[in-house]
Amino acid sequence: MKAEALKWVDHDYWVHKQAYLGFMVKASKGKHQTPVYRRFDQFFDYEGAVKKVENKKEDSRFEGIAKLIKKGE
User: pTM, whole model, 2 decimals?
Assistant: First the structure.
């Protein structure tokens, strides 16, 4: 499961990179059009996304039910 999650982080990185580069190509110096994110790492935190996947613990099958029971008490 972790490998699949990391694969999706790589996919999200690629999608964000394409969006960022697409904007940078269209950006011009005239008419005050400046990017909100000057560097790509401000736009997408790849290392943060990887850490989030690596630190995520495996959920048990019944964890959602346990939360509902606790909420009802």
Answer: 0.52
